[in-house]
Amino acid sequence: MSMLQEGRARRRHRGPHPGPRRAQRVLAVLVLTAAALLVVMVAQATGPSITAPPVGVRPYPSVPAKRPPPPKPPARGSYGIAAAPAAERVNVKLKGPLRSGLLFDVNSGQVLWQRNPTQVVAIASLTKMMTALLVVEHAKPDAQVMITSDALHYSGSGIGLLHQGRRVSLTTLLYGLLLPSGNDAAIALADYVSGSQSRFIGLMNERAQGLVLRCTHFTTVSGIVDQGNYSCAQDLALLAHEVLEQPLLATIVGARSAILPFPIEGGKLYLYNNNPLLLLRYPGADGVKTGYTDVAGQCLVATARRGKTWLGVVLLHSNDTSTQAQQLLGAGFAKLGQN
User: Fold this and answer.
1) Can you say whether the dihedral through the CA atoms of 322, 102, 228, 200 is positive or negative?
2) What CATH number has the domain bearing residue 309?
3) Percent of the chain, pLDDT > 70?
4) Which of the residues 22, 33, 134, 198 has an alpha carbon 20 to 30 A from that of 15?
5) Neighbours of 88 (CB within 10 A)
């Protein structure tokens, strides 16, 4: 037998088993195939990527290309709510029921009188203080706001003359938000700043955390919803101070009425403040916001100045905010020698 024949015989004797390299290649192919099948199975189970935008959903036209960064919260300790010295506290027997309330010095944050200051309650349209604060922090006063269809679908109080597709001055809408407590203005402004009410509510809760408002949570841009939308007198005093630190907002909340440019026949919008102290021309009254729902009752944050003394009241779940505010402010001014 030749050497060639012997070699063929030996190969036939070894049989069809592959060499080591071929076995490694086969194993690698099997591993890759199994991995590919696993990826397909996971993709079928989980559906489309959660990071991809939903099919057919368009972004709101008013959403800025880049969301403005949230303003830095003030350094804690620069302003806070704390009890005044005993000699400056007042004793008042209020007329009518009140669930929670506070009389405080706006300049110092010192509390002259309180009742359940950290009790969590529904706050109705006092919510709009936070709405207004965020608007001035994230948008320019001379901006023109495109009215979306969302702003036409509101309930409760409103400007009532908004038309979809028209542009309205942001400042005009702020007056409409804070004087007649326009829920339609709240929606229009929220859509302009964040693109949707839900995103704006997220900003509201972020800002509340930044201000260390410990008993505050928002579920609505206007206050029309009671469930999950709450605060306490102490937090609202802090929020009111923050609002009054904004010159534009301080001017708006202190106005008894306003005549503003508006895209209707005649070109003017006439608005009137529903703050009872401003309506009654209470001496020195200069803000801030009213609220009411059946659940929240009458709510009021009001401020007034006499000389260098600047006092504020927070009244929650009252049946007569006008009388109670005048009682508390009068007692406070008298105690501090400003009666």
Assistant:
1) positive
2) 3.40.710.10
3) 77
4) 33
5) 15
Confidence at residue 79, expressed as pLDDT on a 0 to 100 scale: 80
**Residue ranges for the chain with pLDDT beneath 50:** 1-18, 20-21, 23, 26, 29, 31-77
pTM score, whole prediction: 0.77
Please report whether residue 197 resides in a domain.
yes
Please give the pLDDT value at position 72: 45
In the prediction, which pLDDT does 261 show? 87
Which residues in 218-242 are b (16+ Cβ under 10 Å) and which e? bbbbbbbbbeebbbbbbbbbbbbbb
Query: Tokens 């024949």 map to which residue?
Result: 5
Domain count for the chain, please give it.
1
The DSSP line for 154-199 is --SS------TT-EEEHHHHHHHHHSS--HHHHHHHHHHHHSSHHH
Domain assignment present for residue 43? The answer is no
Query: CA angle 178-183-184, nearest 5°?
Result: 110
Would you call the peptide bond into 288 cis, given omega within 30 degrees of 0 as the criterion? yes
| Residue ranges making up the domain that contains 198 | 82-335
Residue 78: what pLDDT?
65
The catalytic site residues sit at 125, 128, 181
Whether 220 is in a domain gets the answer yes
The answer to whether residue 73 sits within a structural domain is no
